[in-house]
Amino acid sequence: MRKSVLVTGANGLIGYEVVKRLVDAGREVVAVDRTLSDVAMLTDHAFALEIGDQHRLHELAARFGIDAIIHCGGVSGPMLGRDNPAALFNINVGGTIDVAEVARQRTALGHPCRLLFCSSLTVYGNQPQDDIRESNPLLTRQCYASSKVAGEAIVLSYAEEHDLDAIVLRIAGVYGPRRRTACVLRLMIENALEGKPTHLPYGHGFPRQWVHADDIASGLILALDVEAPLERVFNLSGGINPTIDEAAGIVRAAIPGADIRLDEGADPEDITLGLLSIDAARRVLGYELAVTLKDGIHRLIHTIKSDR
């Protein structure tokens, strides 16, 4: 079991839940993010750190004897960074190089350091057939997704050339109470609670692979602790590919009077992707799902109501 874990993007949707679980398990966690707020209440070892501050990153790794890094940091979705693609690449690709170098140098000095890289299902691009496996081609043409492809290539190259213990997780569309970027689930729920209609010019019949942040945190910790895996790349999803109108039906059933109307067609800002296979994650990592979409939506409704 890794004793001292560095989590980047520790104040975000996934990073926060990972830090919380590791701290609750009594493990030493060093949490870094550009802003700390909530995560600083979880661990005494929380540090404000901008991506690109390599010297501070190396100093923290040495000071705390880091033997694993979970890299959740960076621009966290295709809806962000569109107006500044150069900055997006600098953050996502540059940040990945920074953590890979920390892990490589720790390992070279006789302190093996596992690196987990949070990639995205968007790397597959448009592949509407089901059973999307890790061996499928990467067909992206979007800047965000391309930054994730580049990150994967960096991490796997370090693993091949420098014997770095590295694992890539291709993560589906994560939702949960801490998500602050655009989320159609939150939009439908908030509008319904406020008595407002929701009308989207897309979504009826369009699939989207949601997965709750709790299940992704579980998958990351399993990947953190798995011993000597023969595979390095894993899909992590909710194991389902529901349409947006199916999710809308759950919201309508949970909030009487919810007025949600979806037009036919694909989300113009999303990819059309068939069901991700999570067979490898189940077989190698022991990954299992705990939160159904219905349960997750009900949890999100409860959180939004509590925050009002």
Write a brief caption for the model.
40% of the residues lie in helices and 17% in strands. The chain has 308 residues and is α/β, with parallel strands linked by helices.
Spell out the blueprint of helices and strands.
Blueprint: E1 4-8, H1 13-24, E2 28-33, E3 46-48, H2 54-63, E4 68-71, H3 85-108, E5 114-120, H4 143-162, E6 166-171, E7 173-175, H5 184-193, E8 198-204, E9 210-212, H6 213-225, E10 233-236, H7 244-254, E11 260-264, H8 279-285, H9 293-307
Parallel strand pairs: 1-2, 1-4, 2-3, 4-5, 5-6, 6-10, 7-9, 8-11
Structure characterization notes:
The protein has 308 residues and is an alpha/beta fold. Helices cover 40% and strands 17% of the residues. It is built from nine helices and eleven strands. The chain has helices at residues 13-24, 54-63, 85-108, 143-162, 184-193, 213-225, 244-254, 279-285, 293-307, and strands at residues 4-8, 28-33, 46-48, 68-71, 114-120, 166-171, 173-175, 198-204, 210-212, 233-236, 260-264. A seven-stranded parallel sheet has the order 3-2-1-4-5-6-10, with helices on both faces. Strands 7-9 form a two-stranded parallel sheet. It has a two-stranded parallel sheet with strand order 8-11. The mean pLDDT is 95.
With strands numbered from the N-terminus, the spatial order across the biggest sheet is: 3-2-1-4-5-6-10
The SSE order reads: EHEEHEHEHEEHEEHEHEHH
| Structural Rg | 19 Å
Largest sheet: 7 strands, parallel
- Tell me the quaternary state: single chain
- Helix content estimate: 25-40%
Q: Mean pLDDT, nearest integer?
A: 95
Determine the strand fraction and express it as a percent band: 15-25%
Number of helices: 9
Structural class: alpha/beta
Tell me the total number of β-strands: 11
Shape descriptor:
globular
The end-to-end distance, rounded to whole angstroms, is: 41 Å
Low-confidence stretches: none
